[in-house]
Write a structure and sequence with these properties.
The protein is mainly α. It has one domain. It is built from seven helices and no strands. Helix 1 packs across helix 4 (92-120), helix 2 (29-52) runs antiparallel to helix 3 and helix 5 (128-143) runs antiparallel to helix 6. It starts with a helix and ends in a 5-residue tail after the last helix. The relative contact order is 0.17.
Amino acid sequence: MKELQQALAEIHSIRSHVARGTEFRGYGPASIAASGVLALLVAAVQAPWTARHANGDISSWVAIWAGTAAVSLLLSGLETLVRARRVHRGFVREMIQSAVEQFLPALMVGLLLTVVLVRVSPQEGWILPGLWQLIFSLGVFASCRFLPRQMFAVGVWYLATGLYCLAVAGATRTLSPWLMGIPFGVGQLMVAAVLHFGYGESLE
């Protein structure tokens, strides 16, 4: 029994090692492109409300974008599961686990930072769009090693827009939906394009 458990552990270790060195083709260009369009639509709908309520509640603003992110993650997660089962037969669990391990730290840091900022210093909420984009760029850079190499340009995009948003918002110290919608909308469309051409297959 001990030998069997050791053999199974070694097999699992080998499979995990192979997964970490294999290009992950589970991300779906279609759902990621949809998340980019969704970000632009949310910004367009939210912009008039923000203009009328310049000093609006930061909690409501965060809730809208957190909901947008949740919908995007749900759509992407569902398509990823379907694609990974088709593309990575036999390595589905290891490949998805490896992908999650790369991006999860950035997501958790973004979530915890948001909770602390909203509770402790809500008047400084204007920095959130820029910080979210900087944190997202770290997740993209961490994932580059098992995605098409053009994904590095996406990480640079989010890094540049994050710094730009901090500079622009710092002048007015107000929240703008467009500082979320445009960077994430264009950024996710870039991700979808990189995956589409990098995978060499049609959008699904």
